[in-house]
Amino acid sequence: MEYLMTYGWAILIIAVVMVALFSLGVLGGGSPLGTTCLAKSGYVCSQPLFSSVTGNLLVYVGQSTGNNWASANVLFIPAGAPTAGILIPSYFIAANTGRAFNAIGGLINSQTVQITVPVNGVMPGTPYSKPGTVVQGTLWAEYTITGLSQGSNYFAQLGTVTLKAS
Asked: What 3-state DSSP class applies to 148?
């Protein structure tokens, strides 16, 4: 009986470790634990889903800054992008000539919307096409505020994302 109890506990511990490794994705489990979006204060960034087929990020974004946004564009900037000497507005200007962003229109205070943001080809030579590929970066918004002069564009980092392509 003592022999069976010793081996029983050992098998139970091994089973628990295997389940933990599988759920963390170490053993190839399809766990979404590698996909996160950490929102900055005053912003919403949740339920990110990155498709290796379309190259797009599907995510819920929102803001509760106390202002209503008259128009907004959301852009994904991958980690490691050459940002030395480049300001965030430059990325939005470049988005019009090759990089892609999502124009979401107006966004009132405390509103959350689901959007699709292009990730593949955001930077030349950076295809993220294989399932399981991990992509990190930041989501930025360019917006104007309702009631203020339309020439005033503001920029805000919505959150930091870590994506595991499915």
From this structure: coil
Task: Decide if 58 contacts 51 (C-beta within 8 A).
Answer: yes
Global pTM value: 0.67
User: Strand 102-107 relative to strand 111-118: parallel, antiparallel, unpaired?
Assistant: unpaired
Whether residues 76 and 127 fall in one domain = yes
- How far apart (Å, rounded) are the C-alpha atoms in residues 149 and 135? 37
What are the pLDDT digits (tens) for 68-80? 888 888 888 777 7
Are residue 24 and residue 90 in the same domain, yes or no?
no
- State how many domains the chain has: 2
Rounded distance, CA 124 to CA 122, Å? 7
Which CATH number covers residue 41? 2.60.40
